[in-house]
Amino acid sequence: MKAVTSNERTMTIIQKPKKKSFWKTFVQQKYLYLMSVPFVLLVIVFNYFPLWGWSMAFQNYKPALSLFQQEWVGFEHFIELFSDERFYRALRNTLGMSLLGLTVGFVMPIIFAVLLNEVRLSVFKRTVQTITYLPHFVSWVVVAGIVTKMLSTDGGVINEMLISLGILDKPAQFMAEGTYFWSIVVASDIWKEMGWNAIIFLAAISGIDSQLYEAAKVDGAGRLRQIWHVTLPGIRPTILVLLILNIGHLTSIGFEKQMLLGNNLVVDYAEVLDLYALNYGIGLGRFSYGTAIGIFNSVISIILLFVANGIFKKYSNSSVM
Amino acid sequence: MKKRMSKITLLLAACFVLIVSGCTSKSNSEGEKNKEGLTEFTLFSADPHSQWDDMGSPVSKVVKEKTGVTLKPEFDVNGGDQKIALMVASGEYPDLITPKGGAGTLVEAGALIDLTDLIEEHAPNLKKIYGDYMNRLKWSSKDESIYILPTTPVDTQYFSPGHGVGLQHSVVKELGFPEIKTLKDYENAIKQYKEKYPEVNGQPTIGLSLLADDWRIMISTTNPAFWTTGVSDDGEFYVDPKTYEAIFHYKRPEEKEYFRWLNHMNAEGLLDPESFVQKYDQYLAKLSSGRVLGIIDDDWQFAEAQRSLREQGLHDKMYGLYPATLNEDMKHANFQDAGYLAGWGIGITVDCKDPVAAIKFLDYLASEEGQMLQNWGIEGEHYTIEDGKRVISDEEMDKRNNNANYVKETGIGVLKGFAPSYGDGVLDSNGQTYTIASPEQVKDSYTDVEKEVLSNLGVEMWRDLYPQKDEFPVKPWGVAFNIQVPSDSDLALIEQKVLDIVKKRIPEAILAKPADFDKIYDSFLKEIDKAGAKEAEAMRTELIKERVELWNN
Q1: How far is Cα of residue B450 from the mean position of the Cα atoms in its chain?
Q2: Using the beta-carbon criterion (under 8 Å), do B507 and A175 form an inter-chain contact?
Q3: pLDDT digits (tens, 9 = 90+) for B147-200
Q4: Could you say which residues from 256 to 275 on chain A have a Cβ atom under 8 Å away from some Cβ of chain B?
């Protein structure tokens, strides 16, 4: 622990900014700047130019007309959006599923990575790692098929198992019950992504200086103590950075899972913002309305990102900005 | 430093030029004739075409020779809506386009040309094929131009029913061929058979399975509500034949009774508990296993399962369609005639280089000669003439039925979807049908089990079980669902909202305890009214009245 803090201290000393004018640095590092130009351009063209499309949210956009022929309506689409109860339900489902996903789906890979790291037999370790990250490459279409099959009342594995254990006396309708839906989505997401998400933590763990473990051992620390005092503090920066970035993505959780796993009976729990935008925006050719939802999404993401970043900056030294 | 800065500016400029030129570069297909000396038309089709022959098959070669026109098509796999929106945004169109539901967008953008005068001057065959239906080609009462030439076959006779309740042949055989006239008859048949055989191949027998996967809920769960109560398809609406007043069809009291019957089926344990959860592929797999006794579905939707049962040799597990209704006074309206359904078809765009050549090309395809090529092929090669009649040899017929790439290799029917055509059963100038389909052909395709069932029921074909076409009046508005409305209109929005409520509440009502059914159904009706159902009904009524006016004056 001590070693880590002193390490951080030296780093801050090195990083202390020297007073120097920007132009002087610029001239000095001209080649570096030049080399970054293509990438800056790439970002501008693909990430900032499209922002121009936001103007659509304030028009009654019709595809065939030029900008000057469009009808400008101000905040009309936003007012409609905020007065639609369906939107609030979609928002609730989005936040519900992503918060659930963030808490469970974020902790699991860390625990998994730490535990896997403790395995001594490297063949076993590598095999387990490979097996657990392979599902990441399986399409959601296939995963949804497997999940519905497993939860089926008609010979589904889960129901058969619960019945033979005597927990249930007749098959439960897992996929027809709205209140189960969030858990099913989060659980299948964990099955699919846990191994993949653990890779980055495993990499971070392997970067920890082995001398720290030896020192801990000399101090009389056992396995659990070593995890608590060496491994976890060692990957703390990684955890925090990933957590901040994930919080920024809270409202954009995609829609494949919900669309593929959902059905008409659970739609009250399955419709997320992206799905709502698809059905009631682009699906009906209401480009402006869809854009309004998109803007809302982006604004919320930015706010969440800054808030999370601010909090972490205040209470620890890690931040992404 | 200044020099450096200017270098950077130059680089920036270069990048922009590249980007901009990348966006606007045009393909050089502006030439009038291609290297074969033919006029080459680009064509965008909203539907995929798995049998496209690149205009290189024997039949297509004849078409090229006769018309001097060749096609360079692009087939979309996503229904075309997105591509069409892009075309409209960029203002660049192919010469010909089959936009399906996207026609409204194109017309609004002024992308299609009015074909009225072109048809009058250059297309005698098109005039002949549409005949009295020419009125139905007009776009709307405000704009009477013809933008789209419908490609739906004209005056088709149907040899097989498409809607009804499906029952396994084995059930009918086992119970001694009972009459299936009402839903009660149907229910009893399923019940008796299920009690007798609770298991099929070691798995529990399923009484009635429905499908509710996304939009398919309409086909298998909600549309049957009007079919079984004696009304034909007007999409989500019921149209009063006298006043043309449209209401959402769920509001008819008879349909509530249909859903109550489904609720009862569920309470009895005859309805598959997975009906509203299963996906389409699971449904097909279940049907193909042969343990589902009854289905309520359209023929095309379960055709794949039917084919699979046939291939497995499980001929008595295949389904027959019966015209069961809620009570005996109702007549199943499967064969009610809606007249010619002008709607989807092909249009010529403002970018077309030579509209006259284009309309002549389509006219040729619609002519008797063109129709022969698309249906029968080339004389002497694909058919012969014996005693003045066209005859297809057994060997050729076998190829037609079993060679999956027959269309692609011969070119017979490749261009059929791009031009109007005569429907099944329509006679040509020699008194022979334009298409090769005939009742005899349908009868030949029946399995022995089917023949046995039909003969015991005292009929020759499935369609004979149904009330016939002439028992119903022709609907003067066609069908309500193919009246084009812009997708971003209020009407479309309300319809979407109502449909979303339907998808949720109808399964809920069916799965509820029978005592709660009324309460749930009534609150469902209130909910759709709250979502604007009444406004949508008024708008639809208006559209239907306009169409009746347009088509019948």
Answers
A1: 26
A2: no
A3: 999 998 998 888 999 999 999 999 999 999 999 999 999 999 999 999 999 998
A4: 263-265, 267-268
Q: Which two tokens stand for residue B522?
A: 């009534």
ipTM for this prediction: 0.78
- Please give the CATH architecture assigned to the domain spanning B39-156+340-418: 3-Layer(aba) Sandwich (3.40)
Q: Which of A27, A64, A264 sits opposite B507 (nearest CB)?
A: A264
d(CA B394, CA B166): 33
| pTM recorded for the entire structure | 0.79
Smallest Cα–Cα separation from A84: which of A287, A289, A250, A249?
A289
CB B95 within 8 A of CB B351: yes
> Are B417 and B364 contacting, i.e. CB atoms less than 8 angstroms apart?
no
Structure confidence at residue B13 as a pLDDT band (50, 70, 90):
low
Alpha carbon distance A55, B359 (integer Å): 41
Chain B residue closest in CA terms to A144: B279
CATH 3.40.190.10 in chain B, residue ranges: 39-156+340-418, 165-333+483-552
Contact B231, B152 (CB under 8 A): no
Return d(Cα A275, Cα A269) in angstroms, integer: 12
- DSSP for B248-299, please give it: EGGGSHHHHHHHHHHHHHHHTT-B-TTTTT--HHHHHHHHHTT-EEEEE--H
Contact status, residue B345 vs residue B151, Cβ threshold 8 Å: yes
The number of angstroms, rounded, from the C-alpha of A91 to the middle of its chain's C-alpha atoms is 16
Give the pLDDT of residue A15. 54
DSSP assignment, residue A71? P
**CATH of region B165-333+483-552:** 3.40.190.10
Contact criterion met (CB below 8 Å) for B524 and B278: no
Between the alpha carbon of residue B489 and those of residues A160, B14, B248, B528, the distances in Å are 49, 44, 18, 18
Residue B384 to residue B276: CA distance in whole angstroms: 52
Angle between helices A140-151 and B280-288 (to 10 degrees): 50
Nearest to B496 among A27, A154, A284 (CB): A284
CB-based contact B469:B331 (threshold 8 Å): no
User: Which residue in the set B88, B281, B507 is minimally distant from A265, CB to CB?
Assistant: B507
Chain-chain contact of A149 with B282 (C-beta, under 8 angstroms): yes
A127 touches chain B (CB under 8 A): no
Distance from CA of A124 to the nearest CA of B (A): 37
DSSP structure class, residue B461: S
What digits encode the pLDDT tens for the residues A139-174? 999 999 899 989 988 888 999 999 999 888 888 888
User: Given CA atoms B28, B30, B35, B41 in this order, what sign does their dihedral have?
Assistant: positive
User: Are A64 and B110 in contact (CB < 8 Å)?
Assistant: yes
Structure tokens at B337: 């005639």
Closest approach of chain B CAs to the CA of A149, in angstroms?
A: 9
- Select A78-141+179-315's CATH number: 3.40.190.10, 3.30.420.140, 1.10.3720.10, 1.10.10.10: 1.10.3720.10
Report in angstroms the alpha-carbon separations of B72 from A34, B40, B201. Answer: 46, 7, 52
Question: Residues 6 or more apart from B109 whose CB is under 8 A from it?
Answer: A63, A64, B88
Q: What is the DSSP pairing of strand B319-322 with strand B345-348?
A: unpaired
**What is the chain A residue with the closest CA to B502?**
A264
How many other C-beta atoms lie within 10 A of the C-beta of residue A6? 10
